[in-house]
Amino acid sequence: MKILTLGAAGFIGSHLTHRLLQEGHAVVAVDLTIEKVAEYLDHPNLTFLQQDIRRPEWDLDGLAQDADLVIDLIAYANPGLYLRIPLEVFRLNFTENLKIAEACVRHGKRLIQFSTCEVYGRTAASLPNARVADPEDPIHGTFSEDTSEYILGPVSKHRWIYSCAKQLLERVLHAYGLEQGFNYTIIRPFNFIGPKIDFLPQSKQDIPRVFSFFMDALLNGTPMKLVNGGVSRRCYTYIDDAVECTYRIVQNSGGICDRQIFNIGSPDNEVSIRQMAETMREIYAAQFLDEPAPLPEIVSVPGEEFYGEGYDDSDRRIPNIAKARRLLGWEPRWNFRDALEATMRYYVTESQKNRVSSAAGNG
Ligand SMILES: NC(=O)c1ccc[n+]([C@@H]2O[C@H](COP(=O)([O-])OP(=O)(O)OC[C@H]3O[C@@H](n4cnc5c(N)ncnc54)[C@H](O)[C@@H]3O)[C@@H](O)[C@H]2O)c1
């Protein structure tokens, strides 16, 4: 197939691009940045276009018309940005993404749209007036694609603009499907983790995803900051599992994914953010330190102090993956500890390489 992949040089996009090339597809990849796909740029089946999709001159219609399938991963996908530039998050994640979807509608192309598990919001069990017998029962934190209700915070908690923009896009795709027979598949990722997940922060202004903060703290011996005590829980999903599931959706055998929404995640990998920090310290000491050394302390900071005004969070989210199991025969293979260790190994190796090359530069 000829596949137009937008956001191809992001975390998920770079791994997916690699897989698509391995499987023999021709990939036209679009992204603002290039670093995460730099190693594939010479591949004969890859055409890379470094492009800001917000600029009017790019040939969206021509590229969509020429493709057999369009995969859209472009988004601001980082909580620090939802707090700092909520309008830009809305414009990119809804308005610009809608243009891509409408080009697919115009040219009759199938679209795989990356959405988010954040559409589900909070759990009903977390509400102040919740009446549940056992709030710890995983059933209260488990979300299903076609039946779960969505619970988001008030407008003043502007973190939810990301979730709303993605949700609105999903609803518009659904409406195009109903009214015009548009063929789409929506993916809701649940906290993928793996090499290239994010940059390590270089300055106080940089707010990457939580793994990168903790990794940076370990590498530089600074405190590991837990927002609001790190009680929120997440199901971390290794990128290889995620790409395997996504690839089955690309294949779409017998049209099984047409107009479907899929959760992709590892329900058995649930941990609190505090447990994640503690596990990273353990792994770092056991696997990556040549000799025993003091490890960074773990400290709690208020969410609004760390992220700024408007902060809020999902308390817990566990994917129900019955649909992916049933329709795609997919099963996640990676447990949390192995996924974390493989991701950490990548960053430790990269940081050693950087140290060697800057030492060589200075010498
Ligand atoms: N990683 C996860 O666990 C996760 C969870 C939920 C949802 N998602 C969704 O999956 C998709 C991919 O996520 P990711 O983790 O790879 O994020 P990412 O930030 O690594 O990738 C997004 C890519 O889009 C590109 N991009 C942004 N603005 C652009 C523009 N104006 N023009 C061209 N390119 C632009 C970025 O350069 C980046 O490479 C996003 O839609 C995200 O919302 C991811």
Keywords:
two-stranded parallel sheet, binds nicotinamide-adenine-dinucleotide, seven-stranded parallel beta sheet, globular, Rossmann fold, alpha/beta
Q: Any overview of this molecule?
A:
Helix 4 runs parallel beside helix 5, helix 6 (210-220) runs parallel beside helix 8 and helix 8 crosses helix 11. By secondary structure, the protein is of the alpha/beta class. The chain contains 11 helices and 15 strands. 40% of the residues lie in helices and 16% in strands. The protein has a single domain, classed as 3-Layer(aba) Sandwich (Rossmann fold), CATH 3.40.50.720. The chain has helices at 11-22, 60-66, 79-84, 86-107, 160-180, 210-220, 239-251, 273-288, 303-307, 322-328, 336-362; strands at 2-6, 26-31, 46-50, 69-72, 110-114, 142-143, 184-189, 192-193, 224-227, 233-235, 237-238, 260-264, 270-272, 298-301, 318-319. 44% of the residues are buried. Strands 3-2-1-4-5-7-12 form a 7-stranded parallel beta sheet, with helices on both faces. The chain is globular. The structure holds nicotinamide-adenine-dinucleotide. Nicotinamide-adenine-dinucleotide is lined by residues 7, 9-13, 31-33, 51-54, 73-75, 77, 92, 114, 116-117, 189, 191-192.
